[in-house]
Amino acid sequence: MTARHAEEPAELIPRPEMTFPALRAALARVASSRLAEFQADRDSAFTAATQHASFRPIRMFQLKWATEIEIERRPGLAARYRAALDGANTLDRDDPKWREAMDECMAVHDEARAAVTGD
Asked: What domain of life does the UniProt record list for this protein's source (predicted)?
């Protein structure tokens, strides 16, 4: 283990509750550049919930952002995700490594979602 890895925290912040204020506060700490996207998604979720008389859009919003925050709050997971995204965005789709990068993106997302949902 290198000194850098020894100093790197496993988590930047505790896992937030799945409430709008807690998710927003957590996002502000780990990925503040995404706050406008968060707000736009929140507005869309509330609009859809009202139009369809369903809480499902709100629940999906909370799950999406809790998953995104889970990735960002864990530096090791965030590094894996960024490396995989870089590969997915720069490799040619015919390159077998592109499929590996996409699979890694999904694996990171699945790991983060499972951590959030307890599955």
From this structure: Bacteria
